[in-house]
Each structure stands twice: as structure tokens, then as C-alpha cells.
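Why does residue order matter? Because the sequence determines the fold. Keep that principle in mind as you read this record.
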Amino acid sequence: MGFNHAASILIIFYTTHYTLTSIARLSGGELVLIHAAAGGVGQAAIMLAKIAGAEIYVTVGSNDKKRLMLEEYGIPEDRIFSSRDASFKKELMAKTGDQIGKRDFVQNSNLEMNKFLQSVTFAGVDLGVFGQNRPPAFHQMLSEMVDLHSRKVLESIKPLNVYPISEMQKAMRMMQSGKHIGKIIIDCTGDQVGQALLAPSPRMINNTDASTLSLVVQED
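Structure:
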């Protein structure tokens, strides 16, 4: 396993593995909707959902991303929807017999409590918090993920977009555009040099009128 492949595993496969197996308890025959399926987390979710034997529905944001779903993961075309707007909802609900719902994290909006009458679970996953609160379980999951990749049960995300640290700004702009497919990796090996901004230097000034000291942040 190469360094770039290894670097791509931690966040995306940990998050999806914990979410789908420990929280959702996804099993064979169940339906799963994966948004932004061409990204790193989305592709990891597809791999793990296939292992579970689930029926997979996805959303993507471009024709290139749709092509990846068709050619790389064999997702049927009638299970691939555009994420550019919510117009796919009606068709998706019809195909799944109203078994899939969607609630986005939008502007910290409130959850409608009557949704829970349908015996649904709403959960958020923060891998950092999980690792701090449950170190043994976190380490066990690491061993499982490494084993699955070593045995090629799980494959590398496609493609791995590798940028040297000297091109970090370019990599960040690509990520912000939302147009990339796969996983972005920053390669810090070798003698590459990256730009860095110095932290603002605070200085104290004496405010004689108020007889207090004020903290001023000076940005050079």
C-alpha cells in the first residue's frame, strides 16, 4: 500500500464505516441514498454498502461524475440522480416506494419531530470526537480498515488527485470549486516548499483616557 493510498483511508473510510455499520447498521436488501457519490466519502460509502449487500442510489453533480458511477461502480443509470437541485426527489421516492427521505444540514435548521414517527434515526458523526471518547474502538476500526484494504476488499478512491505541498493553494481552490472527483492528497515528501502566512502579531497599547490596556491585532 503506497503512502498516498494510506493517506486517503483515514477520514473517509473511518467515517463511512462507523456510520454505515455501527450507527445505520446497514444490511442486505436495505436501501441507501449516497449524496455527492463521486467524492471520497461517497465512493467509500458505495464500497461499504456493496459489501453489506444494500441497494444503492446516488446523486452526482456532473456528467463526468455520472460516468464514474456507471463505469467504475456499476450503478444502474436509473439509480443515479443529479444533485444540482431537489427535482430528483419525486422520482427517487417513486422508485424506492417512499422508503428514502432527506434532511440536510442547512443553516442549522430545526428538525421536524414528526419525522421520527416513521421510526427513523438522525445522526451526526465527528470522527475526532469518536477517537477521543472511544480510543479502543477507534484503534480496532483502524485495524479492520487496513486489513480490508490489504486484502483488496476495499480499493483506493478513484482518482487520487495528488498535489505537492508547493501547490497547496491550487489544491484548495480545486476543492472549493466542487468540481473534483475522488480524493485530494497533499504530498509533503521531498524538498518541496509551500507558502505560509505568518500569524497576526498582537501588540499592547496604553489607552490613557480609559486607564486600560487594549489588545490590537496587527496584520502585516
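The chain has a mean pLDDT of 81.
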